[in-house]
Design goal:
By secondary structure, this protein is mainly β. It has no helices and five strands. The termini are far apart.
Length: 56
């Protein structure tokens, strides 16, 4: 596992070594959804909001 800080609450986040770039992980402290931006070094960012496509 690799650890980093949540960009929302600065809480510790541990990401499995098997996680891939663009994978969504959840902060155990604030429950924010985060996206793995890079793995080496580990960087996470707030995940983009999923919008409804209204049938498109």
């Amino acid at each position: 596992m690799t650890a980093t800080a949540c960009p929302e609450c600065e809480g510790a986040i541990e990401v499995q070594d098997s996680a891939r770039q663009n994978e969504i992980v959840e902060c155990p402290d604030c429950l924010s959804e985060l996206e793995v931006v890079t793995k080496d070094p580990l960087v996470v960012a707030m995940a983009p909001e999923v919008e409804e496509d209204w049938g498109e």
